[in-house]
Amino acid sequence: MATGDYVALLDHDDVLDDTALYQVGVELNDHPDADIVYTDSDLIGGDGRLSNAYFKSNWNYDLQLGHNLISHLGVYRRSLVVRIGGFRREFDGSQDYDFALRAIENTTPANIRHIPFPLYHWREGENSTASGIYLKSGLYDAQQRVIENMLVRRNVAASPERTLNGWRLRYRIPEPKPLVSIVIP
After folding, report:
1. What is the pTM of this model?
2. Which of 42, 98, 129, 169 would give a disulfide with 53, using CB separation of 3.0 to 4.6 Å?
3. How are beta strands 112-123 and 36-44 bridged, if at all?
4. At 105, which helix (H) or strand (E)?
């Protein structure tokens, strides 16, 4: 339904920093080829206090496979959103993770930009996953389906393994096993 050049993903009850949209605009003006822009985030308590800042790395594909690095505040070029078909209902519960993985498959690392400031304040409530991922029933199952679907789509011989803070991929060793040489200069 969005009609602008870019689409920003955020939850209805969260808070943007006063300068968030301005800083995203500056980034897009400085990097007009950007397809995805993401920012750091933190938590905002019921008392309005900010805590637990998540200072994200610059673009890191392997980290994105382990959890949704882009997440909030994620801004996507609308033509990319249309090209990948938007959200898919079969991944409800982790639809933004599926969305992000498909989006990054349809752009290049150079077109994924990180703004290193916590511009998104994720509201920490009693039943919010901001308070703990375990509070959202079925989230791990939904994430696993997202990752397994990506592995099939990309023809990657690996399986997801749950970790304390997300996922890791266990890559299968091909047969015959490759020869390994170690050179220490």
Report:
1. 0.86
2. 42
3. parallel
4. helix 95-105
Tens of pLDDT, residue by residue over 19-72, are: 999 999 999 999 999 999 999 999 999 899 999 999 999 999 999 999 999 998
Positive or negative CA dihedral for 91, 95, 97, 99?
positive
For residue 158, what are the CA distances in angstroms to 161, 169, 170, 176? 10, 6, 5, 16
Mean pLDDT along residues 75-86 = 96
For residue 90, the 8-state DSSP code is G
Give the containing element (helix H, strand E) for 130.
none
Handedness of CA 139, 144, 149, 150 (dihedral sign): positive
In sequence order, the 6+-apart residues with CB closer than 8 A to the CB of 175 are none
Determine the 3-state secondary structure of 148 from DSSP. helix
CA distances, 179 to each of 65, 156, 184 (Å): 27, 20, 16
Alpha-carbon 166 to chain mean position:
12
